[in-house]
Amino acid sequence: MNPSTIHAVLERARHEVRKVIIGQDAVIDRALIAIFTGHHALIEGVPGVAKTLLVRTLARVLGCEFNRIQFTPDLMPADITGTSVFNMKTNEFTLIKGPVFTGFLLADEINRAPAKTQSALLQAMQERRVTIDRDTHQLSANFTVFATQNPMEYEGTYPLPEAQKDRFMLKVTMSAPDRAGELELAQRMLGSASPEESLGSVEVVLTDEGLAQFRRELAAVTVRDELVAYVVDVVRATRENDSVLVGAGPRATQSLLLASRASAALAGRDFVTPDDVRSLCEAVLGHRIVLRPEYEIEGVTIAEVVAKILEQVAVPR
Fold first, then answer.
1. Would you give the DSSP letter of residue 279?
2. Do the beta carbons of residue 60 and residue 205 sit within 8 Å?
């Protein structure tokens, strides 16, 4: 598959998702980057901005099975992974698979469940396997988690553990669409098809098997050695900044490199540029950085810290 073919497939996927999701082009691109690199994404936004609909649409466009878990304070780990139930007829235990056995998993409002339940996803996200009653079960090679969360200032939420956040390649912030997008949504609701009904008109761009093949083809996108060094320097700079208590780890370096490669493919190029890296730094690094309390009190933001780091690290030519 040559670069033009890769770009054509990505453009088709974009086009189909935009039939349903209006005014969220940047969000769609970030979601596709996570999917086509085989990683997971954390989606943050207030209720009603189509976070759930986005993931359902992506699953349909890419020909993958879709499951959803509504996270609540009383949700148990077995509700996610599944459990073994004793069958009286066969006199043996039978595995009842949980919703984690799927292609695309929507962990809706993940920060409404306590850490014990959130941690049930850790092995699945890292290894694409789950262990139930000491037996390990393989998940789909295309297993992808999209976790949505409400901003932390909302009531009834629990902060995600650092180990959990590090498993997400990037964090996508969904805001309300602009006036033109919201006007189109309003007109659509008064018309013949709502956004939910429009989902039926979406065409499948890839099969489940084709998605795995497509991911391998992304390796053809070139990343120069000096750009690899640039990514390493940017990530290491997060650990040396005075305002940062906990900086990004080595997994962030890997995520930023892979995300930059997918970004180049989305732009129709077979090589990565510094702009690809810089445009994704906040999305990849922001949720991994913990600021020192005194700087938080002063109103320093993650975006400001990332911007300052990018100013300090020399950009390769």
1. H
2. no
Residue 216 forms part of a structural domain: no
Handedness of CA 241, 243, 246, 247 (dihedral sign): negative
Q: Answer yes or no: pTM beyond 0.70.
A: yes
- How confident is the model over 113-134, as pLDDT tens digits? 888 888 888 888 988 999 888 8
Mean pLDDT of 305-311: 94
Q: What residues does 44 pair with on adjacent strands?
A: 149, 173
Q: Which residue, 211, 245, 266, sits at the end of a domain? A: 211
Number of domains observed in the structure of the chain? 2
Same-domain pairing of 154 and 285: no
State the chain's mean pLDDT as an integer.
87
Residue 129 and residue 146: Cα distance in Å, rounded? 17
The DSSP element (H or E) to which 218 belongs, if any, is none
Q: Is 285 a domain residue?
A: yes
User: CB neighbours of 24 closer than 8 A, spacing ≥ 6?
Assistant: 49, 50, 54, 174, 177, 181
Same domain, 193 and 236: no
Same domain, 197 and 304: no
Residue 92: phi and psi, rounded to 5, are -150, 165
Give residue 305's domain range.
Answer: 221-317
